[in-house]
Amino acid sequence: MKTTISNWGNYPVVKAEYDSIQHIFRFLKESSFSFIVRGLGRSYGDSSLSDYIFDGTKWNRFLSFDKKTGILYCEAGVSIHEILEVFVPRGWFVPVTPGTKFVTIGGAISSDVHGKNHHKEGSFCKHVLSIEVLLSNGKIIECSPKKNVDLFRYICGGMGLLGVLLRAKIQLKKIESAYITQTTYKAKNLTEMIQLFEAHKNATYTVAWMDCLAEGEHLGRGILFTGEHTTKEDLQKFNFSKDPFYVKKKIKINIPFYFPGFVLNSFTVRLFNFLFYHKHFRKQITQLVDYDRFFYPLDSIYHWNRIYGKRGFIQYQFVLPKENGLEGIKEIIHEISKHKMGSFLVVFKVFGDPNRIPQKSSKKIISFPFSFPIEGYTLALDFAIEKRLPEFLKKLDQIVESYKGKLYLAKDARMPKEFFYKTYPIKEFLKIKKMYDAKNRLLSLQAERLGLSV
User: What domains does the chain contain, in order, with CATH numbers?
Assistant: First the structure.
């Protein structure tokens, strides 16, 4: 029986056979259908949609943990939320996290998710020590920076198209509390924002909210957030006398229904942006916040994606190289302001060097060719589905391409195939695909749309 299903953007909506991952071995043996594995559905478009979908969250056990080294061995269906619930009280944190904790380890690897610390610590797969993969021929193999390296390099960021991720070993990071020392800085325009990022490039975590509808001398104004894991010594400076890993439970807000389409418009977005910017009334504020508030502010609002209405929305995330990215960002913000295509969820970050893992024994460097981040600037924008949107996004595509940038596959729902082929190493990926999945058993709607089959 088919189930109606979509991912976080509520676009597209499809009908698909939806089965438990526990039946995958029999499926591979007895059928020839293509399929994709889906985790918690927090990719935005069609990257984990197919005619046949397996629910990967059923394999979610912790298998072992070394409390001396912080190496976690777990199944791919374990979520970042589950890791934090268990290991933060023990003094460990995930090395990299996206803006939601409701992401499985399989999804984090397949998308090679990045966080607020990319400029310092790279993206998620840089901290993955090994992966066990079920191939479409039924065989299970291990890949790592030292073993089956070709598969490892492309399965990191490969959108689940090369094999079913079963288990992984991940290096967690040691922390002394569940708190972040957060400092906010108010930037009057994009130039000042870049100066602030540069001034705080040594901060562990940096991220900015930006007012994409501001114009003239205020173009690109916003708020920069920096953060550091708070030490026990620093907790005393905030007069914090409780258990350093104690976090007060918060009241969760639920969006019970899809908002009407007229709620989000240029006026309401402009009003939100004005209020959010001016609520930070001081140029600089330092405060103590728990990790939930710093990393996952939107996770406290259940079904926040319904704000964009029943037709859904597209998150458009791009990255531009550092050498010319500032001019490109200005051009894109100008287009958004000119067309009044405002987004109140605008996230601006600076990426460091692409993920590279040096190998001491061979002096080789392992990189992830299909990973999204490159050294430069990235902007994530949410746009509600409407008639003007396709043509508007084509215009943004042209700007991104002209500045030699690219789009993030985990957020994509409509990227043109021609643009994709210009910005990702398709030929190399398809060679690996042919080696490990020549019959195209692993195939999402996104992969079909973008020509990722052999």
Answer: 59-175 (3.30.465.10), 179-414 (3.30.70.2520)
